[in-house]
Amino acid sequence: MSDHTATPQFAVPGIRSVRESARSLTAYWWVLLVAGIAWVAAALVILQFDDASVSTVGVLVGLMFLAVGIENLALASLDVPMRWAWAVFGALFLVSAVVSFANPADTFAGVADVLGFLFLIVGVWWMVRAFLVRAINPLWWLGLISGIVMTALAFWTEGQFFISKAYVLLVFAGIWALMQGITAIVRAFEIRAVRAEL
User: How many domains does the chain divide into?
Assistant: First the structure.
């Protein structure tokens, strides 16, 4: 058997078909715009520091649990090792989402109570990641500095009373939602510009 017949031959798609595929994918740029506007609206509600802020953060935590639960269940449906573990964690995340949606105020209180620990985990991970990407990222030191600051903030937050932790959580959640919204809106208009060029 010759090498030519043993190797599968793939047709290289033409420029026209790639352009049409990209154009059809970029037609949904408005979905990112709507998501960005929703994130900005959530940020405005959170940064009002009232009961609606507490409920909004609880619902956002529930949405994160829901997304991770669906992702784990999707992975469990694939032919991967230890599928049962993905399924168990997917089910646990979905139960957590239901609990978060049922009582968002208690969810907020629970997250605020362990906020220092969460900040510590994030800070340590940022420092570890900075050293892991040191060889390929010339700005690795920014991640290291961010990790150190986040770790210091973790110890400061852990020493505060619950009310202070709640306000810190609201500020961080509000800023995070605002940045998500702005990023989504900018990406939507970038995709729209690409669509116009295609």
Answer: 1
